From TrEMBL:
The gene is nuoI. This is NADH-quinone oxidoreductase subunit I. Transmembrane segments: none annotated. It comes from the Bacteria. The keyword Heme does not apply. It is a peripheral membrane protein. Coiled coil: none annotated. Binds 2 [4Fe-4S] clusters per subunit. The keyword NAD applies. NDH-1 is composed of 14 different subunits. Subunits NuoA, H, J, K, L, M, N constitute the membrane sector of the complex. It holds the Pfam family Fer4_7. [4Fe-4S] cluster 2 binds at C83, C119, C122, C125. [4Fe-4S] cluster 1 binds at C73, C76, C79, C129.
Length: 169
């Protein structure tokens, strides 16, 4: 019993000899292969080639030093307040006599930690810092197995001291 009277008639044409030996399909496949053979390869062979980063790339945080090699961070806490993921924690301390060559201001961050598992790399900490002490200009955050290894302290964040006198000698 049919619901409608429309009937679709399928006509099967006999295959030609070329169609029976799949010649048109083989030619079509070879044409596609040759077209892709001369295209530029979009894949980058990663360890040997490194893709250039864009200008807007935000990598690992780095705490900057001033021209004299002192830490710029004054532990004002604006970076921690502006962080929407609450990834930054710090403890402020007073500078003691004899530490003027280490810290620029009287107050400094004795403990400065960033939880990289919470950080969303929004860059608000960078914008909030009045002393231009924090930048997101480092490399990618590398993979690791333990969660505790993603809490970066000052040992990983503060940029190393640069002594120009060593270069001259």
């Amino acid at each position: 019993m049919q619901l409608t009277n429309r009937k679709k008639v399928i006509e099967q044409k006999p295959m030609t000899f070329a169609e029976r030996i799949y010649f048109p399909a083989i030619v079509k496949g070879l044409r596609i292969t040759l077209r892709h053979f001369f295209k530029k390869i979009p894949t980058i062979k990663y360890p040997e080639e490194i893709r250039p980063y864009s200008k807007n790339f935000r990598g690992q945080h780095s705490l900057k030093r001033d021209e004299e090699g002192r830490e710029r961070c004054t532990a004002c806490g604006l970076c921690a307040l502006s962080c929407p993921a609450e990834a930054i924690t710090m403890t402020a301390a007073e500078r003691k006599k004899g530490e003027e060559h280490l810290y620029r201001e009287e107050k400094y961050a004795s403990v400065y930690e960033i939880n990289m598992l919470r950080c969303i790399f929004c860059g608000l900490c960078e914008e909030a810092c009045p002393k231009e002490a924090i930048y997101l200009d480092g490399p990618h955050v590398t993979a690791d197995y333990l969660r505790k290894d993603f809490i970066y302290g000052k040992d990983k964040l503060v940029e190393p001291t640069f002594d120009i006198t060593k270069l001259k000698s």
